[in-house]
C-alpha cells in the first residue's frame, strides 16, 4: 500500500531507502519467487508477511476458507504459496476467510475446518497462520468481521502456530476500545498493523493516538513487526514524518 507510484518489484528498494528493514504485501503471485527473493536479498530486507491466494481477487473473491470445500481450497492455496514462502523465508502468512455469513453454522464449520487444516499443514514448515477480522466498511460481506469470533477460533483450535492478526485500524472500525483489545488478546497476537482512522491514511492522522498505542505494545512486550497498512494521503515519503521517532537500528517496522 506504500510506494505505489513504482512497479511492485521496484518498491523494495524504495522501502529500504526510506529506512524500513522489513516489508509485507498482499499477494506476490504475479511474480516469480526468485524475483522477490532477489529483491529481499539485494536490499537486506526481511519478508514479514503476505497473504495466501484468495481465489479470483479481481472477480471479487476475498478468500475461500468459509465456502463449501474451503478446506480443500485452502490446502491447494498453500501448495501454490509454498514456493514463495520458501524463497522469501517468511514466517507468517494470512489466510483470508472469504465473503460469507458468520451466523451460518455450515460456513462457520467450514471456516474452522479450513483454518485448522492450514495450521496443521504449515506447522511442518515452521510458519504461522494468521487470521484477521476486517471491518464491513472497507470489505462488505467479509466473513471474519469480529475480533471476538477470531479469538474464539484461535483459542478453540489451539494450534501452536495459529495467531491473530491485530489490525488496529480494523479493530477501531469494528469495536473500538483498541488498548483494551490489545491487552486482552495479546497472548493470541502474531502480527500488528496500523493506519489512521477513519481515512486509513498515515497513523498520525485521525482519531487514534498512536504514540500511546505504540507505548502499550512496548509495555505488553510485543516483539513482532508493525505493518504500515495505510494509504498515504500523498506521496509515501511526504507522509513518513511520524516514523522517525520509532526508527531504530534494530527496529521491527514493516513497510
Structure characterization notes:
With 255 residues, the chain is of the alpha/beta class. The protein has a single domain, classed as TIM Barrel (Alpha-Beta Barrel). It has 8 helices and 8 strands. The chain has helices at residues 11-17, 33-42, 70-88, 105-123, 147-157, 168-174, 178-185, 210-220; strands at 22-24, 46-51, 92-94, 128-131, 162-167, 189-194, 226-228, 253-254. α3 (70-88) links the parallel β2 and β3 (92-94). The longest helix is centred in the first third of the chain and has 19 residues, at 70-88. The radius of gyration is 17 Å and the shape is globular. It starts with 10 loop residues before the first helix and ends with a strand. The model is unreliable at 248-252 (pLDDT under 50).
Considering the protein shown, what is the CATH homologous superfamily?
A: Divalent-metal-dependent TIM barrel enzymes
Task: List low-pLDDT spans.
Answer: 248-252
Strand order of the largest sheet: 1-2-3-4-5-6-7-8
- The fraction of residues assigned to DSSP E strands is 5-15%
Number of distinct beta strands: 8
Helix-strand pattern, N to C? HEHEHEHEHEHHEHEE
